[in-house]
């Protein structure tokens, strides 16, 4: 996907190199991305289909002989490339990949991962603009660099470019600090960063051809975007600069800083495109679950934070090889909005991975029921119920994420207690918290409207209280018939079906009971999802 989106800003010959057969003696084939496990005669290509809000489909392909992503007549993929982002653990690690004796220089990160995706006011790719202005200086007919006024004008142009880069860094810095403070530290002063363009372009550097082949190391040494980080000292109420952050900040703090900068840069990019994608490839694999999930919840905008609506416009693709993390993502997302897939490759074979749509446990239970595999059906029902209750009780942020095991029977009791607790609070809100005199409340047992000892105001309050009481009683009956009843029925299903299915047992499982159990778990899911 990255190769396809990037192809929108490349010439055909720059794209074709990815589809050539690798030949050791031919350096022009060394960037080939062809599948090395297929026959060389087979066609190699990348295809993508876009579907707009009206259902209109457009197909895009890049291969050695067919390319339609970089045409001026259709800029869909160009816009997709400008607005989308691909983030993995390696990209985040690059933000602080330096030895202790070095400071963190982010120029290589910006050159490779940020500048190619940013556009200037004239809709020109920023990296292309930087290269165009710094590939070489103006030269005389004999090849010597110009002098005098022409040199002064060239130096002024380079200074202008430096200022444009500095302005962009300032904007990214502001976005990153705002994001980090609000969404990682609850609007508290904890960490802040600054991006300093400390080593810039100048006439001499440009004259020496920084963009020539083999000059990458020299270019990265002679250009520097310095990352400075400060931490807030509560005792002195002052900010303290941390030098060599890669040695003195922990992984969670470094990852937050890197994510803040990436998102700060992303928010400076084009946001009016028809569609855009955000691909997260195991970018949080180095963090423990307590640090991972807040970031995922933020990107998914589970709390519907207006400041995070920025993420809502992205089609998100999350990739992970961590099965536990995968299951947690499933619990935090809706199958009505998401698709789930499993990729599996055999370690002892050089074969492509199998790709299967991941069905819910409820869907699997229905398949097992149809196949007559009743024990397997009961086990999948148990898994589905675990997932439903885990989501409802929000155990993901407490015991479930801290490694504490909660039996399903406990979760069912928690759910019933939560419903009961909510009911008790409703009762207190209606009756106890009104602080009415007990003698006046006892009048509800009488025909209080005919009681001459009561004022019109007291009769009005009793009438309102009586109506609330009737409504409350009706609600409790509905609650008993619906949610609480379903919990109790699920407890019965646990004893009659799920436990026997999970353990060696002489208790037979019947198709009729399993059908009813599937129906009951589905109803439980629907009712608890309403909350």
Could you describe the 3D structure shown?
The protein has 531 residues and is mainly alpha-helical. The chain folds into four domains: 1-74, no CATH class; 90-270; 271-349, no CATH class; 386-530, no CATH class. The chain contains 21 helices and ten strands. A three-stranded parallel sheet has the order 3-7-8. The protein starts with a helix and ends with a helix.
Search tags:
mainly alpha; single chain; 3-stranded antiparallel sheet; 21 helices; 10 strands; 3-stranded parallel sheet; 531 residues
Strand order of the largest sheet: 3-7-8
- Give the terminus-to-terminus CA distance: 38 Å
User: Taking Cα atoms only, what radius of gyration do you get, to the nearest Å?
Assistant: 32 Å
- Total DSSP E strands: 10
Content-based structural category: mainly alpha
> Which term fits the overall shape?
extended
* Helix share bin: 40-55%
Low-confidence stretches: 395-405, 503-507
Largest sheet: 3 strands, parallel
Total helical elements: 21
Mean pLDDT: 81
- The number of distinct structural domains comes to 4
Strand content: 5-15%
């Amino acid at each position: 996907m990255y190769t396809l989106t990037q192809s929108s800003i490349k010439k055909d010959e720059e794209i074709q190199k990815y589809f050539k057969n690798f030949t050791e003696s031919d350096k022009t084939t060394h960037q080939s991305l062809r599948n090395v496990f297929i026959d060389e005669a087979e066609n190699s290509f990348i295809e993508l289909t876009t579907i707009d809000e009206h259902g209109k489909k457009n197909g895009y392909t890049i291969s050695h002989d067919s390319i339609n992503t970089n045409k001026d007549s259709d800029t869909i993929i160009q816009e997709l490339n400008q607005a989308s982002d691909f983030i993995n653990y390696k990209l985040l690690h690059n933000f602080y990949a330096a030895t202790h004796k070095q400071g963190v220089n982010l120029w290589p990160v910006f050159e490779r991962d940020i500048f190619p995706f940013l556009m200037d006011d004239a809709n020109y790719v920023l990296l292309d603009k930087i290269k165009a202005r710094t590939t070489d200086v103006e030269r005389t007919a004999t090849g010597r660099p110009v002098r005098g006024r022409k040199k002064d004008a060239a130096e002024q142009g380079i200074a202008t470019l430096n200022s444009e880069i500095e302005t962009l860094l300032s904007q990214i810095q502001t976005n990153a600090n705002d994001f980090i403070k609000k969404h990682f530290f609850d609007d508290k002063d904890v960490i802040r960063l600054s991006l300093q363009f400390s080593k810039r372009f100048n006439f001499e550097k440009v004259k020496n051809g920084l963009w020539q082949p083999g000059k990458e190391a020299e270019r990265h040494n002679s250009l520097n975007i310095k990352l400075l980080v400060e931490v807030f000292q509560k005792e002195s109420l002052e900010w303290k600069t941390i030098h060599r952050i890669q040695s003195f900040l922990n992984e969670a703090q470094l990852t937050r800083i890197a994510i803040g900068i990436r998102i700060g840069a992303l928010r400076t990019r084009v946001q009016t495109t028809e569609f855009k994608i955000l691909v997260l490839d195991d970018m949080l694999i180095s963090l423990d679950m307590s640090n991972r999930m807040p970031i995922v919840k933020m990107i998914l905008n589970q709390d519907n934070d207006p400041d995070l609506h920025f993420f809502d416009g992205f089609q998100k693709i999350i990739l992970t090889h961590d099965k536990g993390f995968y299951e947690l993502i499933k619990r935090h997302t809706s199958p009505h909005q998401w698709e789930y897939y499993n990729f599996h490759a055999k370690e002892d074979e050089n074969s492509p991975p199998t790709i299967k749509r991941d069905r819910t446990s409820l869907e699997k239970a229905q398949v097992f029921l149809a196949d007559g595999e009743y024990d397997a059906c009961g086990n999948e029902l148990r898994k589905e119920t675990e997932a439903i209750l885990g989501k409802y009780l929000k155990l993901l942020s407490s015991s479930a994420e801290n490694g504490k095991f909660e039996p399903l029977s406990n979760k069912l009791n928690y759910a019933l207690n939560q419903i009961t607790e909510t009911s008790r609070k409703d009762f207190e809100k209606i009756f106890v918290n009104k602080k009415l005199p007990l003698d006046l409340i006892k009048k509800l047992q009488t025909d209080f409207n005919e009681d001459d000892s009561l004022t019109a105001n007291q009769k009005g309050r009793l009438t309102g209280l009586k109506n609330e009481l009737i409504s409350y009683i009706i609600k409790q009956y509905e609650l008993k018939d619906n949610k609480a009843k379903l919990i109790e029925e699920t407890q019965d299903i646990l004893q009659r079906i799920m436990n026997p299915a999970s353990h060696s047992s002489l208790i037979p499982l019947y198709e009729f009971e399993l059908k009813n159990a599937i129906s009951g778990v589905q109803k439980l899911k629907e009712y608890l999802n309403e909350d």
